[in-house]
Specification:
Distance between the termini: 66 Å
Strand content: 5-15%
Helix content: 40-55%
Structural class: alpha/beta
CATH topology: TIM Barrel
CATH class: Alpha Beta
Radius of gyration: 20 Å
Number of domains: 1
Shape: globular
CATH architecture: Alpha-Beta Barrel
Mean pLDDT: 89
């Protein structure tokens, strides 16, 4: 009997293959502004020609662009996506940017997610974006490629607010978009990537299924569903850097090792809150 049980036990190689068979390793990319004018290139703005080149790279290298909901479904079912994939996300809701990127997304039949700041809808340059205004509600409803999710009401660094103010930001944003679009809003992106345990708890209790930060590296099964990694792409992101980000999420082994260590540390209660307080003080 013992020999039969021993024979049935999978080999070390078989166990390794099974353990890694269902790995999830998906770079979730985040953009803010995509202006036509290359002179507007800055820490938050990637020119449209650069964005076109990035989308062409994805198409030319057989890298799929999947909807955020598909990524979320893979995470929840603990099954990988069918092929090498990335997720495209855009923050805030700049009107010209949405018009610019939807034309490119149409060309490649790519889906994307827009995390919308509801309290500045229709305003002219409320977020100091070189004069670029935010979408109006009729423009939000007309979006073809960008599926709207939540990004707060007034775009504050939520970790600097008290709990009642955080609750207002995350709940009113969700309710406002749901009322405007007539469907559930399930995902939230932290403004500036800033959150702590109290913020995370308020987002969860508001009824969101997942939330997205700004930690470097691809999203994996090891991520907390309210602390998913996203990779910021700005005006200084060259095509070579973009290629390395979408292929592995990292630019070097050292960067990858540091990210893995940080992810483990952030699972320890209170560790991320200390890091967030230090970051907020530098603003």
């Amino acid at each position: 009997m013992k020999s039969e049980q021993w024979a049935a036990k999978p080999s070390r190689t078989a166990r390794f293959v099974e353990r890694h068979r269902y790995r999830l390793n998906v770079p979730i990319l985040v953009y803010h502004r995509v202006p036509k004018d290359a002179a507007q290139r800055d820490d938050w703005a990637l020119p449209l020609d650069d964005f076109r080149a990035q989308m062409a790279y994805l198409a030319g290298n057989a890298i799929a662009v999947c909807p955020l909901d598909d990524f979320w479904g893979a995470y929840r079912s603990h099954r990988p996506l069918a092929r090498k994939s990335v997720v495209l996300t855009f923050d805030d809701g700049y009107a010209a940017t949405c018009e610019n990127v939807e034309a490119v997304l149409d060309q490649y039949d790519y889906p994307a997610t827009l995390f919308l700041t509801t309290g500045v809808i229709g305003q002219r340059d409320p977020l100091n974006a070189q004069g670029e205004g935010v979408l109006m509600w009729e423009q939000v409803r007309a979006l073809r490629r960008l599926r709207v999710e939540a990004h707060s009401v007034t775009h504050p660094r939520l970790s600097l607010l008290g709990v009642p103010a955080v609750r207002q930001e995350v709940r009113v944003c969700k309710e406002t978009i749901e009322d405007a679009l007539g469907r559930a809003i399930n995902h939230f992106a932290y403004p500036y990537g800033g959150y702590n345990r109290a913020v995370r708890a308020e987002v969860r209790d508001a009824g969101y299924e997942s939330a997205y930060a700004a930690h470097l590296g691809p999203a994996t099964f090891q991520d907390d569903p309210f602390q998913f990694h996203r990779i910021l792409l700005d005006g200084h992101t060259t095509l070579d850097v973009f290629a390395r980000r979408v292929q592995s999420g990292f630019l070097s082994r050292r960067e990858a090792t540091a990210a893995r260590v940080r992810t483990r540390l952030f699972r320890v209660p209170g560790v991320h809150d200390v890091a967030e307080r230090r970051k907020a003080r530098r603003i």
